[in-house]
From TrEMBL:
Entry-linked Gene3D superfamilies: 3.40.50.2300, Homeodomain-like (1.10.10.60)
Pfam family, any one: Response_reg
GO-annotated molecular function: DNA binding
Cited CDD domains: REC_RegA-like
4-aspartylphosphate: modified positions: 68
Gene Ontology process terms (BP): phosphorelay signal transduction system
Keyword Transcription regulation in record: yes
Protein name: Two-component system, response regulator RegA
Coiled coil: none
Domain Response regulatory: 19-133
Species: Thalassobaculum litoreum DSM 18839
Length: 190
């Protein structure tokens, strides 16, 4: 079998505004993603908080943005409004390790183009930023199993209820003992 050339990585459009704001409170991820996006031709600005992200959005009016949903001082959706006020045509991608349908819907309603789970690679992010078609993205190579998605949802609600089993069970409309058995188990494999 002959070696096939690797597909060429997507790059920022030449000749246009390629300013990119990346806001994430995870410094290693933010810096690694910043370097990867610079290699793809973007003019990158980095921020670690909502306050810093809003300041850069208002001051520099970036054409593109990659935002983490949960930040140490608030929610990445707060930055979306500042970006839309500064530049209505900004292309915004939301990254999160805590994805759920409600936050995805809120992000899209606020003006986010795509909602990607962490860890997302730079090629997938670049494709989402530059894709101007309304087509659905290709299915993920290794999606989480239904059992894993259920387990992640239960864990998230449990944390949001301050680890209160009774309150979590009530909100999930689940028997308390059933929830306790689920919480005692390890996460299902993908």
């Amino acid at each position: 079998m002959a070696d096939q050339p690797e597909p060429k990585a997507l790059t920022a459009p030449s000749g246009g505004d390629v300013t990119l704001l990346i806001v994430d409170d995870d410094a290693p991820l933010r810096n690694r993603l910043g370097r990867a996006m610079e290699r793809r031709g973007f003019d990158v600005r980095l921020a670690e908080s909502v306050e810093e992200g809003v300041g850069i959005a208002r001051r520099e009016r970036p054409a593109y943005a990659i935002l983490d949903l949960r930040l140490s001082d608030g929610n990445g959706l707060d930055i979306v409004a500042a970006l839309r006020d500064a530049r209505s045509d900004a292309r915004i991608i939301m990254l999160t390790g805590y994805g759920n349908i409600a936050s995805a819907v809120a992000a899209v309603k606020a003006g986010v183009l795509d909602y990607l789970p962490k860890p997302a690679d730079a090629d997938a992010i670049t494709a989402a930023l530059l894709d101007h078609a309304d087509a659905l993205p290709p299915p993920p190579e290794n999606p989480m199993s239904a059992d894993r998605v259920r387990w992640e949802h239960i864990q998230r609600v449990y944390e949001q209820c301050d680890r209160n089993v009774s309150e979590t069970a009530r909100r999930l409309k689940m028997h308390r003992r059933t929830l306790q058995r689920i919480l005692a188990k390890h996460a299902p494999r993908d």
